[in-house]
Amino acid sequence: MLAGLDLAIVNSEKLERYASIPEEERRLSEDLLWWRGEDPIAAFTAHFRARSPKAAVIERSDLTLDERLGRYILEGTKEGLYADLDEALRTSRPLAIVNGPLMAGMDEVGRLFGNNEMIVAEVLQSAEAMKAAVSYLEPHMEKGDASMKGRLVLATVKGDVHDIGKNLVDIILSNNGFEIINLGIKVPPEDLVKAYKEHQPDLIGLSGLLVKSAHMMVVTAQDLRNAGIACPILVGGAALSNRFTRLKIAPEYEGLVAYASDAMSGLDLANQLVDPERRATLRERLGTEGAALRLDAERKAAASVGVAPVAKAAVRRDHAVPTPPDLKLHVVDNYGLDAIFPYINPVMLYTRHLGFKGRFVDALAAGDARARELRDQVLAVEDVMLARSDITARAVYKFFRSGAEDETLHLLSPDGGQVLESFHFGRQTVNEGLCLADYTLPRAGAAADYVALFATTVGPGVRALADEWKDRGDYLRSHILQILALEGAEAFAELLHQKLREMWGIPDPAGTTPTDLFKNRYRGVRMSFGYPACPRLEDQAQIFRLLEIERNIGVQLTEGFMMEPEGSVTALVFHHPDAKYFSLSPDDAEKLQQALDEGARIGAAV
Ligand code: B12
Question: What is the DSSP letter of 70?
Fold first, then answer.
């Protein structure tokens, strides 16, 4: 590619795992591709002329024992592992085997992942091999034989049920020489202080999915500081950023706070933090980054002053309003998971969560071996889920009469006379001046309008089974189970939304496929509280009241407005033909919150 290659056609079935190609052969090939050295063709042909095609693949017997041990980890295989461990035990102490060749294998896995040469699913298989090797060696270890680089207390913060990201961190770090004390989910600061005192860890790891959890990390850092704790903290989670960490969390804590975008970079940071020299370099780097971000924030704040708001959007009101079939509450119990799985977005499942590189669906259709292997692993877990009575899909939905009043959306009694609940939305002061309330007709007008609300969930037995598999080192299966539940809840939302359009009399055109749905090719939108157009998670409380979600489908709302089971989704559905996704700027979101706080203060005073 450096030399300008635009396209290459390969038979992917014949592809070797890149990491399995001997280094010498990689070098020869790269020399040829980039025309390095005197005569790369001659060197290349001379090498391969002497080798039969089969010999090009590394034969284990060509390798030394240490190299073989490292390879089991790199390839994520246990075939032959135990016999080689027995051989190693004849000359080496178990701890030396772990810290030597096995850890060298894991280091190589980390390096290849960092270079984009290994994917999440492969890393999990490597961790499985590592766990199997360590478990095999454990009975041979003496008391006090600890192979630990350091100890980390890991927790998902108060109010947050996020398990999957934290579990990945647990798996990666615990199989790379760290002892992990996993405190679980919804962990209040006082429990972390207690755990710190009890375990005296080298590091604390905090995880959280939502913006609210990022704020909870600020509070947690303050409480840890007030308890006199200063050990380095690693933080991570989908809604967290390096910027927030540097500007909001780090200033509240004496010790170092470092942000990790994924579990492998968390491992890299943990390795730096337990090494005094590298920690000092990291401290310096984070300090410089923090200063630059503060400067940038000040500049942005100065630049945003005095920008005139754009005009309110002129959303049309002349469209026909579809009438829903009824205004009753519907509970869907035990919906067939087999009907839901096809609605899972493969990009999310295979690319985002399992790390597949390229277009998964095309690769599968072309017979790509890696894609097929992943698909089969997913299908096997789907079968387990289908067979279990404690893993089911449930939903509750209801159409409501609705009416807008400026930026407020009122949900009304069936005759329109009474306000049941109100949602206060923000309006864009930049871009198009949009507000979600615009997507429903004004309450003051003569015509009735409607919205739908729903919640979907997949569980509740997912966590217990995922933990069981994780504890016995079945990491990839455990991860696949969790992502199927999470993406299953989202897929169920997609499917239910489609059914609601049908019931509403605005069905999708014939031939609409799940892929069309993932691209939002239908009428209306499905908004979830916490999304950029309606960022206030507090509004989950109204949905929970209106649909009696906990009573009807057993989903609980935490004090951080997260839902348990983790694989749960709520949504507010608009039918407006021009409705679309948009974002409130952070300023506009803050303005909304301030207005609501002000209103609440006035309300309380009255
Ligand atoms: C997939 C997804 C879902 C899935 C699964 C959620 C999940 N548990 O991960 C489902 C469909 C269930 C879902 C639901 C919701 N979601 Co959602 N979701 C996402 C999405 C697209 C990806 C998240 C993801 O990749 N998860 C997989 C895990 C493995 O990744 P991860 O959490 O990031 O963890 C990795 C790293 O962050 C890091 N890490 C995490 N913790 C730690 C800790 C340490 C110590 C270290 C070192 C590293 C580390 O390592 C992990 C592994 O590599 C994000 C958008 C985004 N771009 O991130 C929105 C997002 C997180 N969701 C969002 C929202 C609003 C929701 C809902 C509230 C919507 C709703 N009203 O229904 C619900 C809440 C669910 C609940 N239980 O309460 C918002 C959150 C914004 C906010 N306001 O807080 C986001 C940011 C989308 C958006 N742009 O608006 N969601």
Answer: H
In this structure, the residue with its CA closest to atom 20 of ligand 1 is 238
The residue behind tokens 């959007």 is 313
The alpha-carbon radius of gyration of the chain (Å, integer) is 27
Give pLDDT, residue 362: 94
Atom of ligand 1 nearest to the CA of 213: 84
Quick one: which atom of ligand 1 is closest to the CA of 208? Answer: 41
Is pLDDT at 279 greater than 90 in this prediction? yes
Q: What is the mean pLDDT of residues 43-65?
A: 70
Rounded to two decimals, the pTM is: 0.90
Report phi then psi at 570, rounded to 5.
-115, 155
Q: What is the C-alpha separation between 289 and 292, in angstroms, rounded?
A: 5
Report the nearest-CA residue for atom 23 of ligand 1. 238
**Closest ligand 1 atom to Cα of 569:** 72
| Whether residue 270 has its Cβ less than 6 Å from ligand 1 | no
Q: Is 164 in the pocket of ligand 1 (CB under 6 A)?
A: yes
293-309: pLDDT as tens digits: 999 988 888 876 667 88
- Please count the other Cβ atoms lying within 10 Å of the Cβ belonging to residue 512: 14
